[in-house]
Write a structure and sequence with these properties.
6-stranded antiparallel β-sheet, ABC transporter ATPase like fold, 6-stranded mixed β-sheet, Rossmann fold, 35 strands, alpha/beta
């Protein structure tokens, strides 16, 4: 410690400082502290003179700015000999050259710099400065001005002389700038002498000027030159009928432009690897912040995905356990400790006595790359070979390794027979290998057929069994990596037949299980997915597998009461922030009951939807524009309100939240609503209304406003179908349903009725309807009567009342194909019949054209220039690809010869361009075509063209096309039974209202009623209260999700369910809804 002497006028001695303390002082503090030491002050005062008194004495030089570095050099000269040479004789003057020393300097710092220049001049030195700063130019003794212009227009001496003479030079741009600067300085000096007054008309900054994202004259897709303003830092909902242009505004314009601007900030080389979005067809977009999109996805994740991995919680847990965990021996349960080189040698003598071994130094452990430089390094030190992935490879010529494969590379230090006589050589090889391998050495026996290798480490070894361990790496805790996964189950936690290390678990084979398929838990890891070494690392007596076995709520409480030592707290600061934020969000949206290790394929649709949101929204970002596509799909009314609370808090943090949504609760909670319409497709694309919810309700042109102001009244038909609640024989009965979380329940589904299955997310709805009812009935109805008794039922004891059914059809949430070659006509199955109609025409028969000639997906009849797509895609390297219309077929998709064949006056290209409304009339006498077209018209898709590419369809349009595809397989418009063997059908629909506007929901309800009126049964899994209120029978599962669900909490007509006061969350939401929507009379 250094204690400076007491000042004469000081009464309190100065505190003692160590060398480390002194290095933490700023220059100003050091000058004051060392006031008694003239030599130290002489060295420090020049730093203050050039404006560097704020720097710490120990601040690393690489952290200085360019201006700071220049002034530091200047200060070093100022603190030098002050005109004296090292030998004491007078030093020769120095010429100093400075290149723009004012860069990055404040006006006050420039003043200090000029004072330092004066000091150098007083000491007899000369200074040449390259500078643009007018204060420095004005202070110069001599000015050399080059120009008069830049580039080829420069290179001449415009002026050389004093500043006063420079101001008289008309050819100098510097002279005119300096003159104007001096005039302004004089004016400011005169104003400074006047008394200060506050201006009556002060100019104030308007925060409102940039408070909105403004889109001007948007023409993308079906938008009709619209202007859209979205307030910043607010919760905005974009609504409108399906196909009106909502997703175009939100995703194709707002998100795409935010992403494109970010990608354009990258250089051309980087952009060629990431295909940027095409510039939206708009005149201008202003005020747009960075954007994050969360689109609809129905996939839940692969076999190796869990709640923790999907939300990125597991990534942070891995990092925490690597940095803070204590490694234990899996066999001895003893903490790993360092060991000495002599201990390693003793182990070698015991284990390999009398055998020849190769001593290797690990250089690369499971890393990708070519490692050419490593081979050169080894060659320079006299080594002729390296061992790559267990095989000796010469360093010259060095082979080209697979850069995308992980490699293990060791340096063979030497071979030795392990005997006491060779103890000295063994010790020398160990020393060399430990030095090169940074404390690790690999020993491999060179004799014997069995591979015998052992890793030894001076850093990590078990005191009990002397086993050495590699340093923990985040990959050790990954069950997607061979370094961490259990070698028996490859990270799945289950015994899956035919699953191996080459598979990821994302393959279709592993995503869907037949119901009732129970895979045994892996016996080696007990379902934890990790190997023994990973499970043996503990932090505060808890392993990572024990941590992930906790529920979200339990993990949140554990981290809230976690107490850390000072070092651990510093390391884990950012990790804990991320963990707590994500866990809090999951709790806020009602997923506190989920285990962190819960496998992704076992999640319900609503659970998976909220987990996807948590992965994006759980991060603590500010100033971001989040664009969400129907975040409420799959959510019960109770869960929906929790999510809306979370979105409001997100906007309250300074984010812009833009939601494409049809849900009434979401629209009512929005701070700003944009309603697009008035119709869909070519009939939409306009901003019908924009403003608050009150302004929307008052707008007579808004379909959304009208539907909310005058909502549907239930039941739409005036009364419900009569169902005898006590007649168990009149219906489909499932006995002892116990699959997944179903609690051995008996369930009755009335037939020839509209049945709605409700319940909070994760309560067991899909398990009951899809995995038990649909899968079992599909098996039973597909078998011949004699073999039906042998059918093994899945998830239940018995099913009664199904023998009167002829067929079961399902409409699930899987998306339709997004290939440009798919279109409504091909998806619903009418195009084959249309092609046959053209092939039967006289012209086609004369030319020998078969139906295949009229396909745009195979060569022959399609346009060969665009391969039947109607457009060509031009690759633009680092710019977005450009799509241009085909100049040969002009978008018709077919060859000229094919287009010469006509059917009722239209060629095949013109038919493909027809709207559904037009096609219904055109094919009215062809029921195989008109039936599906009429269904499309009934569900509100009359505006679509038959050939519209599937990628351009909205979510609601795609959902209804999928519905029509299934409905068209039967003939509901015919009276009486219409299934096989004259029996009615049963339809199973999983949330058919996804993507549908309120007006479209009414059309869907009418179609469902038509199906029931024709003698069929309809079972709908649904959260939409308009559909629930329209049902003849409601089955409510719950009361909660996961282990807290699986029970029938209510069953009956909607009015009966609404009377239930306990346990049923559906009843709680349905009660006020029916009260406000009951049909009068």
């Amino acid at each position: 410690k250094l204690v400076p002497p007491l000042d004469e006028d000081a009464t309190v001695p100065r505190r003692a400082l160590s060398v480390a303390d002194v290095l933490e002082l700023t220059v100003a503090e050091a000058i004051a502290y060392f006031a008694h030491d003239p030599e130290v002050r002489r060295r420090l005062e020049p730093l203050a003179a050039v404006g560097l008194d704020y720097l710490r004495l120990g601040q690393p030089v690489p952290t200085l700015s360019g201006g700071e570095a220049q002034r530091l050099k200047l200060a070093a000269h100022l603190s030098g000999g002050r005109g004296k040479s090292r030998r004491g004789a007078a030093a020769l003057p120095t010429l100093f050259l400075f290149d723009e020393p004012t860069t990055g300097l404040h006006f006050d710092d420039i003043s200090r710099l000029l004072n330092a220049f004066d000091q150098l001049l007083d000491d007899g030195h000369a200074i040449v400065v390259i500078e643009h700063n007018l204060d420095v130019i004005g202070a110069a003794d001599w000015v050399i001005d080059l120009g008069p212009e830049g580039g080829e227009g420069g290179g001449e001496l415009v002026f050389a002389g004093t500043v006063a003479e420079l101001l008289q030079c008309p050819a100098s741009h510097t002279a005119s700038a300096l003159g104007a600067y001096r005039v302004s300085q004089q004016r400011l000096a005169r104003q400074a002498r006047l008394p200060r007054r506050v201006a009556d008309t002060a100019t104030t900054y308007s925060a409102a000027a940039g408070a909105a994202i403004c889109v001007r004259n948007a023409r993308e897709h079906n938008l009709k030159h619209v202007d859209v303003d979205i307030p910043r830092d607010a919760f905005t909902v974009i609504t409108g009928v399906s196909g009106s242009g909502k997703s175009t505004v939100a995703f194709d314009i707002l998100f795409a432009e935010g992403q494109r601007r970010y990608l354009e900030s990258l250089n051309a080389y980087a952009r060629q690897f990431v295909q940027p979005a095409t510039r939206p067809d708009v005149d201008a977009i202003t005020g747009i912040p960075p954007t994050v999109a969360i689109e609809q996805r129905t996939s839940r994740g692969g076999r190796k995905s869990t709640v923790a991995t999907l939300t990125e919680i597991y990534h942070f847990l891995r990092l925490m356990f690597v940095k803070l965990g204590t490694q234990f021996c899996p066999d001895c349960d003893i903490p790993i400790e360092p060991q000495t080189r002599d201990q390693i040698r003793a182990q070698l003598l015991r284990k390999y006595r009398g055998r020849n071994v190769s001593v290797l130094a690990p250089l690369v452990v499971a890393r990708k790359g070519y490692y050419t430089d490593l081979a050169r390094w080894a060659e320079a030190r006299g080594y002729t070979a390296l061992r790559v992935d267990g095989v000796a490879v010469p360093v010259r010529p060095w082979p080209r390794l697979d850069r995308f494969k992980e490699h293990d590379i060791e340096l063979p230090v030497g071979e030795v027979d392990v005997t006491p006589a060779n103890d000295a050589r063994l010790g020398g090889l160990l020393d060399a290998a430990l030095r090169i391998g940074k404390g690790n050495v690999l020993v491999a026996a060179t004799t014997g057929r069995r591979k015998n290798e052992s890793l030894f480490s001076i850093n990590r070894s078990c005191p009990g069994c002397a086993t050495s361990f590699a340093e923990p790496d985040p990959r050790l805790f990954s069950f997607n990596s061979r370094h961490g996964w259990c070698p028996a189950c490859f990270g799945t936690g289950l015994q899956l037949q035919d699953f191996d290390a080459e598979q990821s678990g994302e393959e279709n084979t592993w995503l869907v299980d037949e119901p009732g398929t129970e895979h045994p838990v892996c016996g080696m890891c007990d379902g934890s997915r990790l190997n023994r070494e990973a499970r043996a690392i503990r932090y505060q007596d808890v392993s990572i597998t024990e941590m992930t076995a906790l529920s979200v709520a339990e993990a949140g409480r554990r981290f809230a009461r976690l107490r850390l030592a000072a070092r651990d707290r510093e390391i884990a600061r950012d990790i804990l922030t991320e963990l707590k934020t994500r866990l809090k969000f999951l709790n806020e949206v009602g997923l506190g009951y989920l285990g962190l290790d819960r496998a992704a394929p076992t999640l319900s649709g609503g659970e998976a939807q909220r987990i996807r949101l948590a992965a994006q929204l759980g991060s603590n970002l500010r100033g971001v524009c989040y664009v969400l596509d129907e975040p409420t799909i799959g959510l019960h009314t109770r869960d929906n309100r929790r999510l809306l609370d979370a979105l409001e808090r997100l906007a309250g943090k300074g984010n812009t939240v833009v939601v494409v949504e049809h849900d009434e609760d979401t629209i009512r909670r929005a701070q700003h609503v944009i309603d697009l319409g008035p119709g869909a497709g070519v009939r939409g694309g306009e901003v019908v209304a924009a403003g608050t919810i009150e302004e929307l309700l008052a707008d007579p042109d808004s379909v959304t406003g009208r539907m909310m102001a005058a909502p549907l009244r239930h039941p739409l038909r005036g009364k419900r179908r009569d169902i005898d609640a006590n007649d168990a024989g009149d219906g489909l009965n499932i006995l002892g349903a116990s699959l997944h979380n179903l609690a051995d329940v008996d369930v009755r589904f009335p037939l020839a009725a509209l049945v709605c299955v409700t319940g909070v997310s994760g309560s067991g709805k899909s398990t009951l309807v899809r995995d038990v009812l649909h899968r079992n009935l599909r098996q039973l109805l597909a078998r011949k009567p004699k073999s039906r008794r042998k059918t093994k039922l899945v998830g239940c004891r018995a099913i009664d009342g199904w023998k009167e059914l002829g067929r079961i059809l399902e409409v699930d949430q899987t998306p339709i194909g997004k290939t440009p070659r798919s279109c409504p006509a091909t998806y619903v199955g009418i195009w084959d019949e249309v092609r046959r109609l053209f092939a039967r025409t006289e012209e086609a028969r004369l030319r020998g054209y078969a139906p295949g000639r009229f396909s745009f997906n195979v060569a022959g009849g399609r346009c060969s220039a665009c391969d039947g797509q109607g457009v060509k895609r031009v690759e633009m390297s680092f710019l977005p690809d450009v799509s241009v219309g085909c100049e040969v077929c002009r978008g018709a998709r077919f060859a000229a010869e094919t287009l010469e064949v006509g059917f009722r006056g239209r060629n095949i290209g013109e038919v493909l361009a027809m709207s559904v409304d037009e096609a219904v009339e055109f094919f009215a006498v062809h029921p195989k075509v008109s039936h599906a077209l009429q269904l499309m018209k009934d569900v509100g898709l009359g505006y679509l063209t038959l050939g519209q590419p599937s990628p351009t369809l909205s979510g609601g349009e795609a959902q209804r096309i999928k519905l029509v595809t299934e409905l068209a397989k039967a003939r509901p418009e015919l009276p009486g039974p219409h299934g096989p063997r004259g029996k009615p059908c049963i339809y199973v629909l999983d949330e058919p209202t996804v993507g549908l506007h309120m007006a479209d929901v009414e059309k869907l309800i009418n179609v469902l009623h038509r199906l029931v009126d024709a003698g069929n049964s309809v079972i709908v899994i649904e959260h939409n209260l308009d559909v629930v209120a329209e049902a003849d029978w409601v089955l409510d599962l719950g009361p909660e999700g996961g282990a807290g669900g699986g029970q029938i909490v209510a069953a009956g007509a909607p009015e009966q369910v609404a009377k239930i006061r306990s346990r049923s969350h559906t009843a709680k939401a349905l009660r006020p809804f029916l009260r406000s929507r009951r049909k009068s009379g």
